[in-house]
Structures are given as C-alpha cells and as structure tokens.
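(Fold this chain)
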Amino acid sequence: MIKEFKPVILFLGKFLILYFVLNIIYGYYVESFKNKPDPMTEYVSRQTAKVISLFNDTGKEIKTSSSDKGQYVYINKGDHSVLSVYEGCNGLNVFIVFVSFVLSFRPPQKEWIWFIPMGLIVIHIFNLGRIGLLFFITQHYPDQMYFMHKFGFTAIIYLSVFGLWWWWVTGKKFQLSTRKGSERV
C-alpha cells in the first residue's frame, strides 16, 4: 500500500521540507531589518507607486515613504498616506510556495530553469496589480478594503499561482517552443 502512495509521499515530503527551509530563511531575512522595511517591500512599493502613477489623473504625485516605526512602506498621494505595504505584501511568501511546488513536483529538469523565473514575474505582476487596486479601493471604497485585502485579492493571487502550477503539471501540452517537424497540442 505504501508503494502505491510513494510518489505522493515523496512530493509532500519534498514540498514541506523546501517550504519550511525557505520560510525559515525568509524569516531571518525579515528579522534582520529589525523595525525597518526590508528591501523587497520597498522595491515592490516603489514599483506599485510607478504603476499607480500611470493611471493617476489627479495631478498629485504618487510616491513612497518608509516607516521609522515598523516594517512597512507608505504609498502616498501628494502629502496624504493612502496605503501601508507590510513585508507580507511583497510577494516573497507566494514565491516560496510556488518555487517549492515546482521543484517538488518533478525531478529537476531543464524546463524549470525558464519556468520558475517566468512564474515569479507573473506572480510579481499580479502582486503589483493587487496592491495598486488596494490603493484605489482604499480611496474610493474604504469599507471594502478589509474584505478585498483579506479574501478577494488573496484569492486572485493564489488563483494565478494555481494556474501556473496547472501549467507546470500538464507541462508538455503547453511548451513555449516548438520543434521543426513536430506538432504540439
């Protein structure tokens, strides 16, 4: 009976080990900045501010400022702070779940060399959009902020991860390159 479930047990074992090891490293990374935001949170916040600026027609500058009292970055509209971006919003934890799954599902092969970076970029873009939309919701629908942050956009970002996993699991049907003389379905 154990032989029947051996692939599943191996997958779960690899996944859990990778996930916990990467999360421990991430925890040390975050803690190393004490009471300041980590560079990834600052980077994601600045990028989000740039994306928001593309859609800003109010004439007020969209910029970021770091907190002196915590591990978060403010995204400001003019002189008004609209949204606080905490370390958990930087996408690194979602990256960890994604990478752990991809590396655990199949033995290492050359496909993951392009798939993991491409997946991280897709997740990052979804995360920038998520934070940008939360910025908009905070201004125009503040009573919806909690629900959208906690459930709506969390579901969307994890659906993007599940979509990438699905692509990885069904891999041969959706390869990016085609070989001359061979057809891919």
In short: The first strand starts at residue 62 and ends at 66. Residues 2-31 form the longest helix (30 residues).
